[in-house]
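Thread: Newbie trying to understand structure tokens

Hi all, I'm a second-year student working on a class project, and my supervisor (Dr. K.) asked me to get a predicted structure for one chain before our next meeting. I've only ever worked with sequences, so writing a 3D structure as a token string is new to me. If someone could post the tokens and maybe explain what I'm looking at, I'd be very grateful. Here's the chain:
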Amino acid sequence: MDSLTQLTLGSAVAAAVLAKTPGSRAKVVLTGAVLGTLPDLDVIIDYGDAVSNMVLHRTQSHAFFYQTLAAPLLAWLAALCCGQRAHYWRWLLATWLILISHTLIDAMTIYGTQFGLPFTNTPYAVGSMFIIDPLYTLPLIAGVLYYLFGHRRGYQLNMVMLSLSSLYLLWSVAAQWHVRQVVSVSLQQQQLQYQQLLVTPAPLNTVLWRIVVMSEHGYGEGFYSLLDNKANVQLHWVEQDPALKQRYGMLKPVQQLAWFSQGFYALEQQGDSLLLTDLRMGQEGSYAFVFKLDPTDASAPQQLPMRRDAVKALPWLWQRMRGTPLPSPYISAALTANQ
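---
Reply by user tm_fold:
Sure, no problem. This is what the structure looks like when written as tokens:
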């Protein structure tokens, strides 16, 4: 999840565990925020190339085993900074919960979190939450503010807001399951043959969902809103040359992304170069992770900037979320430019 969500979640958990201990509430909230953002400091590590930096994010710093080993020392430092050494055991519980909750909320997104290290490096990804979702973060902020500014029921209100945010996570899983059932029936009715199906939320919400379907000769992208009048999912298909994956499948960056994305990737020839795309994050015409490879020397893949156009994308998102059948803004813009 985004940094604001993680630091706020850390503060909320710290407040929940340490609310009844004497001392500065501000220090508790600030220390919880610092602990909540610590696992993401692994982004400063350079693993040698752009693809490796991507697939090795959320590894050891997000693993339950290593977090449990680090918790006693971090808890001692936290208790020392807050002048609460007498409440070390409460800080140990708070620190462990903050680190674990950071990993758990990250695992709810589609990116991939390797929390089983060192026993397994499987990148777990529920994919029911977008990386930024105001309906999850705002209750956490409200609860922390109630606690921080001395409201006499601040502890209870912080717990209520933590519970609401947790219920929202459960809602996202239920909504994802429902959309997957709708999409599966729609694809069956259309007699479409496919190999893999991905259902993940569109930006900032859990009402509009993005669908990616992988087939032998390409992939299809579609959207389904819980407010749609019809349970019929229309896909925009992008053809792919399967020979490219066979020819270049042994290149290290291709192997890495194929594993990390669990098969939801695209490989395209562009002149003398290859474009390697993670199809899980972003949407057609605007992907978060696109890498340019030299097939003769794939040791230094170059990450291309993500195409963004908020002027078109945000109005489209709002209208499509409400059930208006509109094509993706990036696809429609490309079609218009080619006419």
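A couple of things are worth pointing out once you decode it. The chain has eleven helices and ten strands. Residues 3-132 form one domain. Feel free to ask follow-ups in this thread.
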